Amino acid sequence: MNYNWKLSEANFTKDKGKVFSCFACGGGSTMGYKLAGYDVIGSLDIDPKMMEIYRENHKPKYSFIESITEFKNREDLPSELFNLDILDGSPPCSSFSMAGNREKDWGKSKKFREGQAEQVLDTLFFDFIDLAERLKPKVVVAENVKGLLLGNAKKYLAEIYKAFDKAGYHCQHFLLNAADMGVPQRRERVFFICLRKDLSEPFMEQVDLFLERPEIKMEFNEPWVKFNQIKSPINDNTRLLIGDSLIKHYEGCNNQGVSYLTPNETRFGFFRKVMNSSVMPTITSNSKKGFFIEEKMLSISDREILLAGSFPQDYNFLDQKCNYVVGMSVPPLMTAKISEQIHKQWLSRIEVLNEVSKS
Fold this sequence. Notes:
Elements: E1 18-22, H1 28-35, E2 39-45, H2 48-58, E3 62-65, H3 68-71, E4 86-89, E5 110-111, E6 118-119, H4 124-135, E7 139-145, H5 154-167, E8 169-177, E9 188-196, E10 204-206, E11 212-214, H6 247-251, E12 258-260, E13 270-274, H7 287-290, E14 291-293, H8 302-308, H9 322-328, H10 332-358
Parallel strand pairs: 1-2, 1-4, 2-3, 4-7, 13-14
Antiparallel strand pairs: 5-6, 7-9, 8-9, 10-11, 12-13
Helix pairs in contact: 1-10, 4-5
């Protein structure tokens, strides 16, 4: 698996198990599962534009455009959804992001760009767990921002653990960096990886005197891919020219390439000069307007965004900007590496144990 690839050339074996993806956005995590050999049978997202992109590129067997709050109570869910190996989800995370308002937005119903619909984002994680309790997949994988582990958000973390326990799952979380998996981007995300309790006994380990949990290792040590390894020609016609108002910030970036701006200067909050000898910072939906290359006052290119996000070079974004979709998505290679370990350490062994019990 490599960050530089094309959908048209990929070989998806579909022999590792069935996956359904919630909050699927443009399909980043779906591509990762497919790269690792899973059969992604469908998706759920509230945003019609994102689902249009998803359907164009993935042709899912099942796809639903609605809130998970409604979806979890549907009486007509396909029977295949009750026989999943993995239920995947990335509940919208702006309530916990360090770049947002955090506590000021908790519990509020707001109109976010995701679907142009009003939602209380910090409760959607629990709707996702409710769905897991109903569908009872072997494994649940949920991705969220690093901010969920910081400050008062730790209270939500404890509630997430309680909810998974009530739903019948052993839960553990990992703070993982996409750069450690060969993704050309420093993207730290929290992954909750949960195993159904009735399948857990063969994997249990003693963590301390009072706690047992199913053992799974998430250790990745791929060499970091520096920006100069994915860099496009300077004259790439998808680059933007830096505006005059930002030149002083370009010139004033620190040695990490960051210049913080005042709210009156830009709504993006910071400006980044992408350093040739460093790994690209986290791609966000606004990266095209806030990230500029080191030696010229020009933005990063579309190709650099795709490579940094490990998105295929031939992905069809329809009428959406690639930086918006890539910035909203889990890097495919990141999901591929994680789900590869889930199959290797859990699902493949469950299959063997099931065969032994039948014989």
